[in-house]
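Appendix C reproduces, verbatim, an entry submitted by the partner laboratory led by Prof. M.T., so that reviewers can inspect both the input and the predicted structure.
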Amino acid sequence: MLINYKKVNIYQDDNIILKDVDFNADEGQFIYIIGKVGSGKSSLLKTMYCELDVYEDEAEQAEVLGRDLLRLKRKLIPALRREMGIIFQDFQLLHDRTVGQNLDFVLKATGMKIRKDREHRIEEVLEKVGMSEKKNCRPSELSGGEQQRIAIARALLNQPKIIIADEPTGNLDPETANHIVKLLKDITQTGTTVVMSTHNIGMLNKYPGIVYLCENGGIKEVKEKNEK
């Protein structure tokens, strides 16, 4: 089990956002988290990469990639994040660097020292997302969909076991959003798990997966959404 939450209460400051969360993710799964704005989707994702804390007296169990989040020391959080890919709605690319330099920055920061190895890995991930020809472009020269593809390439650099995608299609037109969700779905065929929050309900039938619904301060698996 890559993620295992049992009876987890999730807080923003002193306000409880989600109560008694039961959530599981295993290898190669494609998981949607849906719900209205403010229902807790992003807060749940943030606990998985320790942007939000999970408190020991507010959870029965909270494990991600073999780590017990209830007892995880802060100095160990970077190592956990290196086993994940995190994708945001606003891309978060460095605009003063080319695509290749953006990716190289991440590989250097995560300890890949040999330049030739970094260049090879950059070529691999750009090919995977269909963006090899954009290596020397700056983000400002790319469309929103192209920038999100680069963000996905960045998330793939360290061969993550889990990709966490927070509204990755939120700023994209429907056709581009379709390409991005298909790309994320295809990534699960390699064994990587994708956990994605979305408002784009139309994708649920087109690219079936496990669906969790956040509403009324809780979360539940909604099986009928992916059985059609």
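Confidence is low (pLDDT under 50) at residues 224-228. Additional entries are available on request from the coordinating office.
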